[in-house]
Design the sequence.
């Protein structure tokens, strides 16, 4: 039993175990500079109307108030239920880092740190920001590969990052036992900040620019009005808001429930311990860099003359606050901590004591065990929420201290300018949906917490909580035959096992066990015929009096004729690519819209919002879960399908991009002649309950033609060879369609003034600065996958967006953005992969002509000859 007082714990002496925050002085946990904090003062003012009401006065909510007010928004009100920082913020360890394994979040970390560096000067509030740098330790060869992988993903960003040798690490962190250390990933400028002081400084700034921060003012009810505004109720009174932002930390689920939403968030416990003065630390001439022992799964930083140690336990050991999951946060839970539980973290402490031996002599003077929320993938949810007008969220922060500054700016820019300032799709709250049950969220939160420091591989799959209820009709038939990938709740075949081959999940930075099977699937589609389960696509039905007008306003392409399909892009007002959809005009004024699995609610929200804004008389239905989709592709696709239908599928009768309702045997389908493989193919949209029967019939009918399955990895290789762009990689709201090479789909001369048209005209008039190109490179056992640095003359000049092995030329193939002056065919550049620069050359795209183009050329050459 742990109790306040002094207790020796396997070498570490425990002095006290902290439970309740001392009101107003949370820095007593691990107070840093000894600076005085401003008194907590509630403002007496009240407003009946607000432009934006932010619910929650943690670092995230206050940062948003600061940014909105600073950018000039009038009537920004923040309502806090007790006092600022009273959720997870007051007791956080305050670590800040430039590093993030993803791409877009690096920008958030960067913006936060740059803001924190100048906040003290701007607001006059001390923030206790220390920037001694940080070192991540590699003690295994695969971790060194991960660092090399991360270096190429950072090279084209503003962040400074280096791989350093053990000797250098020893010099920077003299208390480290470097026996097992192979390398370090060093980020100068990393460090830690006092979260309480940071929030107070942001609050001072917010007030200075005119925001009202009101507390105590608990929001007790939220009522939407028909004009899109909200009535926000508190015991102090009611306030009408044009927009509300839920920033309620681990109460965010409770706030969501007020309007019938179940945000997928799970409260978890996280602990760190603080030691008393350690003479060896005290004797140091400069502050130690923050250390992250990735194999040991803990962080360690200097805290005054002692150390602060925080582990991430495995998913089996970590603690979900179960009673809160079932019953919600107990009413009245305030600025509190949980009982500490050192047994849970003991094994991690022992590892740390081996790495940093002075810890063995240290006394523990404080243990902090605090609550925070985890989303299934540990990334926060930031942005407007689909299905609820003018309801925004900034919730689910596992690392809110480092995210607060950047996210506040990002969200404020989005709110003020009507579009996200840069691509941050991984934080879109609409990546989740009805399939994210509490059970799923809990399994995932455990996994995400436990995997905090695991090696992050390309094409990584995580298996907790799978399958969800959202499986395709074919799932049971295919699950034992293939390696499934997880896409927005769905399971989708990545690659199929071949007899005698290794079927394990073997992630790697290099080519791995799926490389050969994917090659066979590639040949299957190029030479015979393949079937793929495309059920995860997002699918919407749009009809009504104004449907054509609405789509003409939304899309940069023209509206296809009845019975036809086209690829269309929704652009932002600034002319960037918000989404790419397949639009089929099924009957006059009735459309089937198809989007990728990851963008279902992202796209739907945009469409719904524009429909409401413009007062269009349309009916929009999300039919994603109702329809299954099978893709049949390859030179023999027609022959196989023709056996099953009386509809004439011949080239001149069922043309490329035509769509028809027909029957495959007795099953009604909407057939579209299109295939992302670029080969002859159809997509068959059918009732989800018919998927197995339809699949079985096609497979039986195709026996003679040598039909077989293929998965999304083969499809990716096929589409890259055809130079088909992918939304989210080659195009997103960081790119305009002209630089992405999508001119063919953008009709600047169509009469409708579609969103982004004017901006795009200006972009065109000014000329492009960079362009998307296709390049090939010969490597040994590694392929590009996107986000790698492109080098020219010793400098990073661009980045890849996606890549694959090309099974047709036995080389690697990638898309990349390069400066316009380096975008000519034949231009040589280099692509950095795992620490090595490989020579690459820009090629004429596409590498392989599509089937419709081959046909057209063949017909033309036939005509030319006659
Ligand atoms: C032990 C520990 C250490 C951590 N260390 C780090 C770290 O080193 N670095 C890092 O980046 N992150 C760290 N974190 C995570 C970080 O603390 C959180 O991500 C961050 O504080 C979340 O901030 P927030 O503003 O979203 O929520 P909170 O700080 O929880 O704030 C939410 C606020 O909303 C208010 N509220 C709730 N309901 C209502 C309502 N109905 N009406 C009005 N107000 C309401 C609450 O009172 C609260 O003040 C740590 C967390 C823990 C537990």
Sequence:
């Amino acid at each position: 039993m742990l109790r306040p007082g002094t207790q020796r714990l396997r070498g570490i002496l425990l002095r006290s175990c902290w439970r309740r925050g001392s009101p107003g002085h949370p820095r007593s946990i691990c107070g840093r500079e000894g600076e005085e904090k401003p008194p907590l003062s509630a403002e007496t003012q009240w407003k009946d109307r607000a432009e934006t009401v932010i619910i929650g006065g943690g670092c995230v909510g206050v940062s948003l108030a600061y940014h909105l007010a600073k950018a000039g928004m009038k009537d920004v009100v923040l309502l806090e239920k007790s006092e600022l920082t009273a959720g997870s913020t007051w007791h956080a360890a305050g670590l800040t880092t430039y590093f993030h394994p993803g791409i877009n979040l690096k920008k958030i970390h960067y913006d936060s740190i740059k803001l924190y560096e100048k906040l003290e000067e701007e607001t006059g509030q001390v923030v206790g920001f220390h920037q001694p740098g940080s070192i991540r330790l590699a003690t295994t060869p695969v971790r060194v590969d991960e660092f090399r992988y991360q270096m190429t993903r950072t090279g084209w960003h503003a962040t400074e990052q280096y791989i350093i040798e053990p000797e250098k690490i020893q010099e920077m962190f003299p208390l480290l036992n470097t026996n097992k250390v192979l390398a370090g990933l060093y980020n100068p400028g990393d460090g830690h900040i006092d979260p309480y002081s940071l929030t107070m400084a942001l609050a001072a700034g917010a007030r200075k620019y005119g925001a009202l921060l009101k507390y105590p003012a608990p929001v007790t009810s939220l009522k939407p009005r028909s004009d899109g505004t909200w009535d926000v109720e508190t015991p102090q009174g009611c306030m009408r808001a044009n927009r509300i932002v839920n920033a309620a930390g681990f109460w965010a689920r409770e706030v969501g429930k007020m309007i019938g939403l179940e945000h997928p968030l799970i409260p978890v416990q996280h602990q760190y311990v603080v030691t008393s003065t350690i003479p060896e630390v005290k004797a140091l001439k400069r502050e130690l860099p923050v250390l992250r022992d990735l194999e040991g799964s803990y962080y360690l930083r200097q805290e005054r003359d002692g150390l602060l140690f925080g582990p991430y336990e495995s998913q089996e050991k970590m603690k979900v606050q179960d009673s809160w999951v079932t019953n919600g946060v107990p009413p009245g839970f305030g600025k509190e901590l949980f009982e500490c539980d050192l047994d849970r973290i003991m094994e991690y402490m022992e590892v740390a004591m081996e790495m940093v031996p002075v810890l063995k002599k240290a006394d523990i003077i404080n243990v902090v065990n605090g609550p925070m929320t985890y989303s299934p993938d540990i990334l926060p949810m930031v942005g407007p929420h689909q299905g609820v007008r003018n309801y925004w969220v900034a919730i689910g922060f596992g690392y809110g201290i480092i995210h607060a500054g950047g996210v506040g700016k990002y969200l404020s820019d989005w709110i003020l300018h009507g579009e996200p300032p840069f691509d941050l799709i991984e934080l879109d709250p609409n990546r989740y949906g009805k399939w994210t049950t509490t059970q799923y969220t809990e399994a995932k939160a455990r996994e995400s917490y436990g995997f905090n420091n695991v090696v992050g591989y390309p094409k990584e799959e995580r298996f907790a909580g799978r399958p969800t209820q959202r499986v395709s009709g074919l799932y049971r038939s295919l699950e034992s035959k293939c390696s499934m990938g997880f896409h927005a709740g769905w399971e989708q075949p990545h690659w199929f096992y071949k007899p005698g081959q290794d079927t394990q999940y073997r992630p790697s930075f290099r080519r791995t066990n799926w490389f050969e099977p994917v090659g066979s699937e590639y040949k299957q589609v190029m030479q015979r015929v393949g079937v793929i389960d495309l059920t995860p696509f997002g699918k919407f039905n749009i009809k009504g009096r104004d449907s054509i007008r609405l789509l003409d306003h939304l899309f940069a392409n023209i509206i296809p004729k009845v019975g036809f399909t086209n690829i269309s892009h929704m652009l932002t007002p600034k002319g960037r690519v918000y989404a790419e959809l397949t639009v089929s005009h099924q009957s006059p004024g009735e459309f089937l819209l198809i989007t990728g699995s990851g963008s279902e609610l992202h796209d739907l929200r945009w469409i719904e919002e524009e429909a409401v804004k413009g007062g269009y008389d349309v009916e929009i239905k999300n039919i994603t879960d109702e329809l299954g989709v099978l893709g049949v592709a390859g030179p023999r696709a027609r022959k196989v399908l023709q056996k099953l239908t009386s509809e004439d599928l011949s080239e001149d009768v069922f043309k490329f991009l035509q769509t028809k309702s027909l029957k495959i045997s007795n099953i009604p389908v909407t057939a579209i002649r299109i295939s992302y493989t670029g080969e002859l193919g159809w997509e068959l949209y059918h009732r989800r309950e018919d998927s197995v029967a339809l699949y079985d019939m096609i497979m039986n009918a195709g026996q003679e033609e040598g039909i077989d399955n293929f998965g999304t990895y083969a499809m990716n290789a096929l589409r890259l060879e055809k130079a088909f762009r992918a939304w989210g990689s080659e195009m997103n709201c960081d790119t305009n369609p002209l630089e992405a090479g999508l001119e063919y789909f953008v009709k600047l001369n169509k009469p409708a003034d579609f969103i982004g048209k004017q901006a795009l005209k200006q972009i065109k008039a000014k000329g492009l600065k960079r362009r998307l190109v296709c390049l090939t490179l010969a490597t040994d056992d590694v392929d590009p996958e996107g986000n790698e640095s492109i080098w020219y003359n010793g400098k990073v000049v661009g980045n890849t967006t996606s890549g694959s092995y090309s099974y047709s030329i036995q080389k690697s193939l990638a898309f990349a953005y390069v400066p316009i002056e380096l975008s000519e065919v034949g231009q040589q550049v280099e692509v950095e992969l795992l620490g090595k620069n490989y020579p690459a050359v820009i090629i004429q795209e596409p590498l392989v002509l599509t089937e419709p183009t081959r046909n057209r050329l063949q017909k033309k050459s036939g005509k030319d000859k006659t």
Notes: The radius of gyration is 28 Å. The longest strand covers residues 363-374. Residues 721-843 form a domain with the Elongation Factor Tu (Ef-tu); domain 3 fold (CATH 2.40.30.110).
